[in-house]
Amino acid sequence: MPEAPRQDSRTDSRTAPTDEELRTLDAHWRAANYLAAGQIYLLANPLLTEPLRPEHIKPRLLGHWGTSPGLNLVHTHLNRVIKNRGLDALCVWGPGHGGPSVLANSWLEGSYSEKYPDASRDAQGMELLMRQFSFPGGVPSHVAPEVPGSIHEGGELGYSLAHAYGAALDNPDLLVACVIGDGEAETGPLAGSWHANKFLDPVHDGAVLPILHLNGYKIANPTVLSRIPEEELDALLRGYGHEPIHVIGDDPAIVHRAMAEAMDTALDRIAAAQHAAREQGATERPRWPVIVLRTPKGWTGPAEVDGEPVEGTWRAHQVPLSGVRDNPEHLRQLESWLRSYRPEELFDAEGRPVADVLACVPEGTGRLGATPYANGGLLVRDLPIPSLDDFAVPVDKPGTTMHEPTRVLGDLLARIMRDTAVRRDFRLVGPDETASNRLQAVYAASGKAWQAGTLPVDEHLDRHGRVMEVLSEHLCQGWLEGYLLTGRHGLFSCYEAFVHIVDSMVNQHIKWLRTSRRLPWRAPIASLNYLLTSHVWRQDHNGFSHQDPGFVDHVLNKSPEVVRVYLPPDANTLLSVADHALRSRDYVNVIVAGKQPCFDWLSMDEARVHCARGAGIWEWAGTEDGAEPDVVLACAGDVPTQETLAAAHLLRRYLPELTVRVVNVVDLARLLPQGEHPHGMSDFEYDGLFTTDKPVIFAYHGYPWLIHRLAYRRTGHQHLHVRGYKEAGTTTTPFDMVVRNDLDRYRLVMDVIDRVPGLAVRATAVRQRMADARTRHHAWIREHGTDLPEVAEWSWNA
Fold this sequence. Notes:
THDP-binding; Xul5P/Fru6P_PKetolase_N; thiamine pyrophosphate; lyase; 22 strands; alpha/beta
């Protein structure tokens, strides 16, 4: 492979580190270790200017020491290569409970003090740094949004490598290091993430350097990858497409030299691979390096406590000395441990890091805690979203024409993809479903990212593509999160039932956004946008296993200032909602829309107004004509909207004297009280829309109890009756799905008759007609395998 790196300014001739350089690297590492341990234990006396006393110790000892020395080693050596090579770099810290380390290093380099001036780089600031860690009113024990340079909350393990690759996409000059804990390496999402190198374009993307940190133990058990033979581990990593570089030891002097050489070797190989692809036209997929770092868990901490081995065992995972305030021997051991780092050599009398400690630290935005890539809102640009009128479907009369909403949206996404071809800051991700979800128009603007082998039968594969398809929802989610957090835009398209696979991941992202909003130095990033299609009501062909609309319930449980849920009923409302979502910042937007042909209800202008309201009366569908309604037919979702309008049609025909109001809800959060969600309606608005005393028959896309939960405080809640999905599904006809779940037009008419006072007696014949229609439906589909003609051929204007 060619030796030339990607830029002359990044050249390193791989000269072995000098003894002086290794000495200063060790000084930095010892300083970081001292600060990390101090954060777990110390409330005062940060420089040990007096003997430790119990009152210097925190009353509750929280944090994780075991991984911290290894993370400090990685941070120290990343500093060296960033400074020597002039790199733009970011690090994703997979063992997120190693928060003390990343906090310590950001304080040493000065980026922490820049964001939090009270934590100045002196004794007073050091005391604050230590006191606030895992302390009421302070900072969490994980690498959280509060930590400069972070894009990854590692409290839940498994997502680091996917985030790293997402950050590297379309950032050609960025090195993304990713420390993977050996416990984390046992998770499914992390195992799937090793395949991300088959999607990394060495021309347009940056590089990811995985650093697999094998310290041997999880909380209480050994880790798999640390216990298999080295040749088996190497075979595994080579099978994933990596070339391993090993760093092993417990002698700091030996490990520092080996780590420096490993970093140089890895970065030279990365530079050569990028140079070959960018300058020489090489198309063979590179075998990227991976560093395997084996150091003891709790390295440099207490070797033994109370007669039990600690360093190098699972006992070092959290707090090695737990009885420091009450046990004089533990207190003595803690002081001996802290003094072993020789803090008097590392900090001057005022508590400032000395020159040796800072010798390896880069300047300005080269510091890992100051890189703008970890504060993506500083880099994000508005998407060039064209006028929706260019893509809108014409609607002269409601319910006359039909379109596939997601196909219409696909044309808009293709234009955005085309208009971002040069700037490369928009990606579409999904698990092998872009065409299935009718979004294939994007292939005309960009193919599917692919670096593995190809065959003549393959379609739309492109080494430089920005459509990401892999059959792992975890990987799709992680890629997109990393991409957004580093300042770009995207959309995640997924089958509705299977987006649940990332329930836990979206939890973490929502928490990240909520916390980030409270940090003035974190600039808003582009929203995480989901398009959920192939939804519950049109999974009649795949059957029960593919029918689950509950992701909406899951999301609406989360921080209301962050989450938004939209159910556009037709193509033009989908365009309007998507336009809003793609322009928004710091949200998680969930859009549920069908891919099958459905009726066009609103013109583009009407759709804009209706979506801006979030919920509104469709006057053309009701029979109010200025009179007070006898009943409100409400709906949310495309199929429920069609069934509601079909029910309104039947009521016009059979009960023309009944005054009916039709309300459509696009934005589910509108149903919440104003004080519980930014989009919530006041009681005045809600009562004006739904009335306080009239029956409301609500046809809803998902589980009916969600609507009750959103509206349970409203005055008219006792009059609210919701129909929705109730786990009654199979492989059947489209209309049979709604019948099985009592969401069909005939059942809705029966509900009106049952709940409007006086109708139960005078409309008995109509109710029987509706029940008979359901009976005819059951017989018809079993004989013909298709829906009743009166259903299949129905339209609003028929």
